[in-house]
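Quick check before the chapter quiz. The format below is the same one you will see on the exam, so make sure you can read both the input and the output lines.
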Amino acid sequence: MAKHWADFQYEIYLRGMKGAVPRLPTDLSRLEELTERRLGPGPVGYVAGSAGTGSTAAANRAALDRRRIVPRMLRDVAERDLSVEVLGRSLPAPLALAPVGVLSLMHPDAEPAAARAAAAQGVPYILSSASSTPMEEVAAAMGDGERWFQLYWAKDREVTRSFLQRAKAAGFTALFVTLDTPLLAWRPRDLHQAYLPFLHGVGTANYFTDPAFTAGLAKPVHEDPDAAVLHFVGMFADPGKTWPDLEFLRENWDGPIVLKGVLHPQDALLAAEAGMDGVVVSNHGGRQVAGSVAAADALPRVAKAAGDRLTVLFDSGIRTGDDIVKALALGAKSVLVGRPYAYGLGLDGQAGVEHVIRCLLAEFDLTLALSGHSRPGSLTADDLLEESA
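Here is the expected output.
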């Protein structure tokens, strides 16, 4: 019998019989405000901030809120199976933790705590290239847990090649290549604080421990950290990359490759033609292009273009279980959640991340069942109505 994630609510109610209430809100939309109160404006701003006025982040939420679920009645939903097959892996639910860099800003236990939480709940953890902890340490922290690696594609080919070799050796099974950050966007919240963590050597752990990276330094990192930071800044991203460059990744990675940041159907077709395995429909949570199309508005067209040739995943705006239902109905196979788990980490370490995962999947399980579905694969666009904007 499949696990019922919805049982988490009864666990909470039963604890209430002994006077215990959850340490964190079960309405995950409240986490950002709590984190703002507890942590400094620089770190919180880096995670919560968006490009420009924040219009893209707002559009992400509006696009999901505009879609309304149409429940169906008298369908047998007594037994539910939330499991899905994604990139050749069997997962207990259509959810993974999105790559969020520099998690030491949120909590001293940083990425290992988030990775342990994901492993404990059986969902994949996607490690950012820009993590505060070397990839090998994160892999060790999560044991046999499903782990995927997110690549910021450096200008230096040897550094990129080394990252891929290290990730494979550490048991990361899929590669997520972020395409929408060839340059850092104009982010007023960070600019107001004049705060970019990388310039302080935070979020550079994978680089500073990489033999190909350190080979380019005149002195070891600890002897001249400023030079190491400048070397990092000079190679972090490459706005000159084009579609033919993907061949290099395919030559150096023998597992699934997913392109993150796809919003146009033509780019999905180009991804398929380049031999990629999937795309993430994402606008980087509104952090890159101010005025961008909302991710949920882009999803149906990308999913249609992808057809059966690509696995379509979704992020940017997921905050609730019903958001997951909507994303799947619009064509995604699974979703990634980012900021909410980063806030959970900031507020309560590993336990906070597990709380976020369990809340999301309990609400997803309940919403799915109450809408008349016993498995994610039965959701289609016919299960939604779109309100006029």
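If your answer matched, good. The two ends are 42 Å apart (CA to CA).
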